């Protein structure tokens, strides 16, 4: 309807400016019509770009965000010691060393850690032996357990978020004590260790800023930018 109104207005205006029925009138009206059609097409294209489906936006990730360690998260491609997944070769899992030796986990309901010292002559638990063997594999219930936390590099990056925890785009707290509060929104940051104390180096107006709670949009300075290597086991023995 808006296009029709604009065309009618243009026709009436040109009638008074150049006179109806003249060659100039016909050329001017044709030019205005093409200009209006072009503008409408560009408007429709721009509108479509700004109204992408929600599911697409939720899976849109900026490369600079994935590669960043904002708020203590894991950076894509970082293989540092504090990027080792604490669930790798956990007590219930199966560990296969590069030698081909298979070590079974303690199993459901058992609290003691299994040990390979006598079998391998190693002064280490099978978890340590598995971690120290760069070619070892770990799995539980048929599912591979990643050695590194790199799959956590998408933390706080969904929806095209930028590479810093700002006032307008705060991050989820790293502390493992907040896991239950934030639920599925929470995932591990880089592991706390002697080489990674989790200092956030907060700068006012720059960040990093974190959500104060899972039910509020209020933001506060992030206080800890690493996650303790504490393990959680669900009722089926899966580690998280």
Task: Describe, in plain words, how this protein is organized in 3D.
The chain has 240 residues and is α+β, with helices and mostly antiparallel strands. The protein folds into 3 domains: 2-51; 54-78 and 152-240, no CATH class; 89-144, no CATH class. Helices cover 29% and strands 7% of the residues. The protein is built from 7 helices and 6 strands, in the order H-H-H-H-E-E-H-H-E-E-H-E-E. The chain has helices at 2-18, 23-50, 54-58, 63-66, 117-120, 126-132, 179-182, and strands at residues 94-96, 102-103, 137-140, 143-144, 209-211, 219-221. The strands form 2 sheets. Strands 2-1-3-4 form a 4-stranded antiparallel β-sheet, covered by helices on one side. It is elongated. The protein starts with a helix and ends in a 19-residue tail after the last strand. The model is unreliable at 51-56 and 107-124 (pLDDT under 50).
Core attributes:
7% strand, alpha+beta, 7 helices, 29% helix, single chain, 3 domains, 4-stranded antiparallel β-sheet, 6 strands, 240 residues, two-stranded antiparallel ribbon
């Amino acid at each position: 309807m808006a296009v029709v109104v604009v065309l009618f207005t243009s026709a009436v205006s040109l009638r008074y400016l150049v006179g109806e029925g003249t060659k100039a009138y016909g050329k001017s009206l044709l030019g205005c019509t093409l200009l209006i059609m072009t503008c409408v097409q560009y408007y429709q294209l721009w509108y479509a770009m700004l109204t992408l489906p929600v599911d697409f936006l939720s899976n849109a990730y900026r490369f600079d965000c994935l590669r960043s360690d904002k708020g203590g998260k894991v950076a894509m491609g970082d293989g540092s010691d504090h990027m080792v997944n604490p669930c790798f070769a956990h007590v219930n899992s199966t560990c296969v060393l590069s030698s081909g030796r298979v070590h079974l986990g303690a199993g459901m309901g058992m609290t003691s850690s299994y040990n390979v010292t006598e079998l391998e002559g190693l002064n280490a638990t099978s978890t340590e032996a598995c971690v120290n063997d760069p070619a070892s594999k770990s799995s539980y219930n048929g599912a591979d357990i990643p050695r590194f936390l790199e799959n956590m590099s998408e933390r706080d990056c969904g929806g095209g978020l930028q590479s810093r925890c700002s006032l307008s785009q705060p991050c989820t707290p790293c502390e493992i004590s907040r896991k239950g509060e934030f639920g599925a929104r929470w995932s591990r940051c880089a592991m706390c260790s002697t080489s990674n104390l989790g200092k956030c180096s907060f700068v006012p107006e720059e960040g990093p800023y974190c959500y104060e709670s899972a039910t509020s949009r209020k933001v506060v300075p992030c206080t800890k930018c690493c996650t303790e290597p504490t393990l959680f086991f669900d009722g089926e023995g899966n580690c998280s």
